[in-house]
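Collaborator request, handled under Task 6.
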Amino acid sequence: MQVGKILYPVSTLGPGIRAGIWVIGCNRNCEGCANPELQTADASKDIGVDKIVSLISTFSCEGVTVSGGEPFLQAAELKQLIEQLRNIGIEDILVYSGFTLRELASMGDPDVDWVLSNITVLIDGPFINSLVDDIPLRGSSNQKVWLFDKRYEQKYVDCLSREKKVDIFHIDDEIHFIGIPFKDYKKLYAKYIKSR
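C-alpha cells returned to the collaborator:
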C-alpha cells in the first residue's frame, strides 16, 4: 500500500484518540487540497499492510482514520488493511474519499463493496474550496458523513458538534497540521510557522 504518513495520536479526525493513515495517489487535483504532496502515486512508498497493522497495534488507539490521497484507488490493499485492523480489535474505522458513496457503490468492485460493509464511517465527495464550512470532519459542505455502524452514533454526533481544530506534529524539520482545514487556515498556519 502506498503510504505518505502514519501519525499517532490524532484527535481531530474522528472521535477519541486515533491513528491516522494517509495513502498516496489521487487524480482529482481539487483546488485548495490540504495534501497536494500526496496526489502523485509513488511506488517507492509502498509498505506492506502487515507492517502498517503491526505498527498500529503498538498504539493505544480507539480508532483509525484513513485519508489521502484517495484510499479507494488502492481498494484491494484498503480491504486488507481494514480486515487486519478488525482482526486486532479496531472496529471504529473512518475512511475519506473524493468519490461519492453512489460512485463507489456503482463501481461493481467487490473490494470496494467489502470496505463499505466493514467501516464505521465514510466521508465522501470531492473537496470544494468555495464550500468550506465549520462542520468538523468534512472539508466542504457538499461532503456527507455516512455512519454505517450505529454503535458509534453518539460518539460521532458528539464529534460533529465540536469546533474544527488541528493537531500539530513536529517531525524532524517538518510541521504537520492534522485536521480538516477551516476558513483562512493558511494565514494561521503561516503565522504559526513563522513564530517557530
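The cover message to the collaborator said: "Residues 75-87 form the longest helix (13 residues). Strands lie at 3-10, 18-23, 63-67, 93-96, 121-124, 144-147, 167-171, 174-178. Please let us know whether this matches your experimental observations."
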